[in-house]
Design brief:
Blueprint (H helix, E strand, L loop, with lengths): L6 E8 L6 E9 L2 E7 L8 H9 L5 E5 L4 H11 L2 E5 L6 E5 L3 E6 H5 L6 E9 L4 E9 L6 H17 L1 H5 L4 E6 L16 H9 L7 H8 L3 E2 H5 L1 H6 L13 E6 L6 E6 L3 H6 L5 E5 L1
Helix pairs in contact: 1-2, 4-7
């Protein structure tokens, strides 16, 4: 029984009257597993635990932000047996690692000379056997939770949405993944569970955290994969910080992919992940 890009299921054709097995049928289900991870300040000194956290999730594709150290990327990629592309055109590095061929890449911040942004990398990866393309945008937006920070993120997400507008206009399936430093409108935030700096911003904002950026993404037609798969988890679980996980600021957004094709989505909160970075990695399995 052969596995194609994800899993293969075996079915049996039986005779109705006797229930005898007449034949066996194998059906290939094509799936892609993707993980997105903010590895904190380049991951220096933490390449091995970061790699172990990632490898446990069995990804085909990995998106990394704050990927500032080439030696760390090389070590993680070697552990995963993946090729990678490294974008350094913004204030912070981004990378995409893949066990599948990487066909095209664009460091949009370098191309547009937007060095005051953190990261915006686009890559097209080709799934073997069926030659299906996956276009992925690796995104890292401005941090912090005050109103002026949300306004800065609104400017940045406008650029991201403009970059990917041709994909949307042609209804071309693609993903936007990474650390958006933004909160979803449906997220239930307990101010006592967030990190102290965020709690201070919460009070300065009049008892709230701005949520317009994620709403802008949703309004453009994207689906929050975790919400599409498990709304309860999307509302209540946090990806940041690992010590005060009161917010979910890391996302895998899909466009042009029917929600039932999101077969799984998760926030990896195991013990090693708690200490490998200040963000928990997130993942999705898409058919």
């Amino acid at each position: 029984m052969r596995s194609y890009g994800g899993q293969t299921i075996r079915g049996f054709v039986r005779e109705l009257k006797t229930n005898r097995t007449l034949s066996c049928v194998e059906i290939a289900i094509w799936v892609m597993r993707i993980v997105s991870y903010n590895i904190l300040e380049g991951g220096v000194g933490r390449a091995d635990p970061l790699a172990e956290v990632i490898v446990a999730q069995r990804p085909d594709i990995v998106s990394l932000v704050e990927a500032d150290d080439a030696a760390v990327l090389e070590r993680i990629a070697a552990r995963l047996s993946m090729d990678f592309i490294h974008a350094t055109g913004g204030k912070s590095g981004a990378a995409l690692l893949s066990r599948w061929p990487i066909r095209e890449t664009v460091d949009h911040l370098a191309a547009r000379r937007l060095s005051d942004f953190k990261s915006l990398l686009e890559a097209t990866v080709v799934e073997p056997e069926i030659d299906r393309e996956w276009t992925i945008g690796v995104v890292h937006l401005h941090a912090k939770a005050r109103e002026e920070d949300e306004k800065q993120r609104e400017k940045e997400i406008a650029v991201v949405l403009d970059v990917f507008a041709p994909h949307r206009q042609q209804n071309r399936p693609h993903l936007l993944v990474g650390d958006f430093n933004s909160n979803a409108p449906y997220q239930e935030i307990d101010s006592e569970k967030v990190k102290p700096a965020t709690r201070e911003a919460w009070h300065d904002n009049g008892g709230q955290i701005p949520r317009r950026v994620v709403q802008n993404i949703l309004d453009a037609g994207y689906v929050d994969s975790l919400y599409g798969f498990d709304p309860k988890q999307a509302k209540s679980n946090g990806s940041f910080s690992t010590q005060h996980p009161g917010q979910r600021v890391d996302y895998i957004f899909t466009f042009g992919i029917e929600t039932p094709r999101i077969r799984a989505a998760w926030i990896e909160q195991d013990r090693l992940a708690k200490y490998a970075s200040d963000h928990f990695p997130i993942g999705a399995r898409i058919e």
